[in-house]
């Protein structure tokens, strides 16, 4: 492909979208190193003869994420029509996929694939995200970035190793989210990971950390919390949908589900009070991206509890029982009418939903990722 076909909008517009992405998205979901991403844009405009398909794809996928996550609209077009809509940017990034995947495995290649997954997982058709996350995780495994003892880390400098670990954990998170949505086993198994989790205390760039307001101000790593919650999502699959779980007795399955509810309760207990659902629905002290991001995490908790109960609006047997109970109350006078038995964990699910809904309602411009 000739260079004139790899077009980008005016430099000022691109830098505006890159800044939006770094400020509102990458700060808590650190797919890119901000300095390296900025250097990619610098090289593109300052050294035209050194442009590559990979860097062109990186810039396009970042522009797509910036627009999509800012307003949560897949078809959103920037006020300046020269920028292109989210699908326009995605199509350009996708056009470079074959070359990217068939070439040497570089960090930027993996970031492009994961950037595409971030957007596709929020659309009505989950299939592209399923295929792409499978590819991304196989690339991670080939490189060995899920294992601290791999040759890869022994040859990488500390800054490179840090970013590779972050990229792996993002792939891990996306894998668990997609697996929960399609009720299939995650691709990456916990037993084959031994790299360290994102830190509890801020490192050099404090990526993933949120500074909580108030008298007892501290820094909390929501990125680490996201990884920990993703690990619990895998436990939910193991307890309810795996082949092994179907071979257990009802008592054993109930005990496993209750253990996971306790893990979720413990996970929530470690979230600072100012970052919990009830507080976020009332405060305006954070960037808009933070309540949105945490709202999606709390929505994941609700989904986990709902799957542990194995009762939802699509369970017609359960719905029929509720309808029968409702009709019995209205038609019977003075006669005892017993409600259908509650599934284990029902009260925990109801309480979680009640805490979650004010935050959910307070989030404007919800995209498909909130609703699936």
Please characterize this protein's 3D structure:
It is a single chain. This protein is mostly helical. The protein has a domain of 154 residues. It contains 16 helices and two strands. β1 and β2 form a beta hairpin. The radius of gyration is 23 Å and the shape is globular. The two termini are 38 Å apart.
**Are there runs of 5+ residues with pLDDT below 50, and where?**
72-77
Computed over alpha carbons, the radius of gyration is 23 Å
Number of helices: 16
Strand order of the largest sheet: 1-2
End-to-end distance, in Å?
38 Å
Topology:
Elements: H1 11-26, H2 34-46, H3 53-71, H4 86-95, H5 97-102, H6 107-120, H7 127-143, H8 151-154, H9 158-182, E1 209-211, E2 219-221, H10 222-240, H11 243-246, H12 250-269, H13 277-280, H14 289-309, H15 316-331, H16 346-362
Antiparallel strand pairs: 1-2
How do you describe this structure in short?
The chain has 372 residues and is mainly alpha-helical. 60% of the residues lie in helices and 2% in strands. The protein has a domain at 8-144 and 159-175.
Task: Provide key terms for this protein.
16 helices; 2% strand; two-stranded antiparallel sheet; 372 residues; 60% helix; single chain
């Amino acid at each position: 492909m000739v260079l004139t076909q790899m077009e980008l909008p005016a430099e000022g517009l691109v830098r505006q979208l890159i800044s939006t992405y770094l400020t509102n998205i990458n700060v808590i979901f650190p797919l890119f190193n901000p300095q390296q991403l900025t250097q990619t844009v610098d090289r593109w405009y300052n050294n035209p003869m050194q442009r590559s398909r990979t860097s062109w794809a990186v810039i396009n996928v970042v522009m797509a994420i910036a627009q999509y996550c800012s307003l949560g609209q897949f078809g959103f077009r920037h006020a300046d029509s020269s920028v292109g809509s989210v699908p326009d940017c995605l199509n350009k990034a996708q056009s470079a996929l074959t070359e990217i995947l068939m070439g040497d495995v570089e960090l930027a290649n993996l970031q492009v694939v994961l950037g595409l997954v971030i957007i596709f997982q929020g659309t009505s058709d989950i299939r592209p995200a399923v295929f792409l996350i499978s590819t991304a995780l196989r690339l991670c495994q080939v490189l060995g970035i899920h294992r601290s003892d791999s040759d890869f880390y022994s040859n990488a400098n500390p800054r490179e190793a840090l970013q590779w670990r972050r990229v792996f954990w993002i792939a891990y998170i996306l894998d668990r989210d997609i697996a929960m949505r399609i009720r299939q086993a995650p691709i990456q198994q916990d037993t084959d990971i031994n790299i360290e989790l994102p830190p509890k205390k801020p490192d050099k760039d404090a990526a993933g950390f949120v500074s909580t307001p108030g008298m007892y101000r501290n820094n909390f790593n929501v990125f680490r919390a996201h990884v920990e919650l993703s690990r619990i999502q895998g436990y939910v699959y193991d307890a309810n949908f795996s082949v092994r779980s179907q071979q257990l007795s009802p008592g054993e399955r109930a005990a496993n589900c209750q253990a996971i509810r306790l893990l979720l309760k413990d996970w929530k207990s470690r979230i600072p009070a100012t970052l919990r659902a009830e507080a976020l629905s009332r405060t305006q002290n954070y960037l808009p991206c933070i309540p949105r991001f945490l709202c999606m995490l709390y929505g994941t908790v609700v989904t986990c509890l709902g799957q542990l109960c194995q009762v939802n609006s699509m369970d017609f047997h359960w719905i029929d029982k509720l309808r029968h109970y409702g009709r019995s109350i209205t038609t019977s006078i003075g006669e005892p009418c017993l409600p259908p038995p509650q599934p284990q964990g029902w009260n925990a699910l109801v309480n979680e939903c009640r805490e979650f809904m004010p935050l959910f309602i307070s989030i404007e411009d919800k995209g498909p990722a909130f609703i699936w």
